[in-house]
Design a protein that fits this description.
The chain is of the alpha/beta class and 175 residues long. It has six helices and eight strands; from the N terminus they run βαβαβαβαβββαβα. α1 links the parallel β1 and β2.
Length: 175
C-alpha cells in the first residue's frame, strides 16, 4: 500500500485489511514522506503482519509505487490505494480463485463502488471467470465490464518482471 498523507482514509483502509477472514498475509506499507502523522500511526500498530517502508525524501507517485519491485513480497500481491477498503472476505475469495485457477497470473474479484462515507453507489459489472486479453479489452472498451486497480491480485514475480507500475505522466491518482 503506497501512501502519502493518508489521513483518516488510511486508517479505514488498514482496518479493512487487518480484518480479513483469511489471515495469512503481510501488509507492506510504502510511506512517501508523509507529514500528517500517517507514518507514525502505521508504525504504532502492533501487528506482526505489517512491514513499513518509509521514504527519506518526497518521491513522485511513480517513484513511490515503483519501490514495490524492490521489497520482499509473498508469491502473490495486490496493490491498494490508501483511500480504498477491502471487503472482509477479499483475501479468502482470492485464495479460492488461486486454488481454482492455479496457472493464472492475474486475478480480479467483483467490487462495489462506494462514496467517501462507505455508502454503496453501485456494484461493478462483473467479468467472466476466464477471459482472453482480447475479450477483456473489448468488453472494457465497450463498458460491458468494470475494472478497478484495487482488487487485482497477481504473481509478484510477474509484476517485478514487468518492472511494476509503468511511468504515466500526469497521473490522475495519488498515493
Amino acid at each position: 500500500m503506497p501512501v502519502r498523507n493518508g489521513g483518516e482514509y488510511v486508517k479505514e483502509c488498514v482496518s479493512s485489511i487487518l480484518a480479513q477472514s483469511f489471515t495469512d498475509f503481510n501488509l507492506l506499507i510504502l510511506d512517501n514522506n508523509s507529514s500528517d502523522g500517517t507514518l507514525e500511526w502505521v508504525q504504532s500498530i502492533n501487528d506482526s503482519r505489517i512491514n513499513v517502508y518509509p521514504s527519506q525524501k518526497s518521491l513522485t507517485i511513480e517513484e513511490n509505487w515503483s519501490r514495490i519491485t524492490s521489497i520482499p513480497k509473498n508469491e502473490f500481491i495486490t496493490l491498494i490505494g490508501h483511500d480504498d477498503i477491502l471487503k472482509s472476505d477479499y483475501l479468502e475469495t482470492m485464495n479460492t480463485l488461486i486454488s481454482s485457477y492455479p496457472d493464472a497470473s492475474l486475478y480480479q474479484t467483483h467490487f462495489t463502488y462506494i462514496d467517501t462515507k462507505g455508502n454503496t453507489i453501485r456494484n461493478c459489472k462483473p467479468m467472466e471467470a476466464i477471459e482472453s486479453a482480447e475479450e477483456f479489452l473489448k468488453k472494457f472498451l465497450l463498458k460491458e465490464i468494470d475494472v478497478m486497480g484495487t482488487g487485482f491480485m497477481m504473481r509478484s514475480k510477474d509484476y517485478d518482471l514487468l518492472g511494476g507500475i509503468p511511468i504515466y505522466p500526469n497521473l490522475l491518482f495519488a498515493d
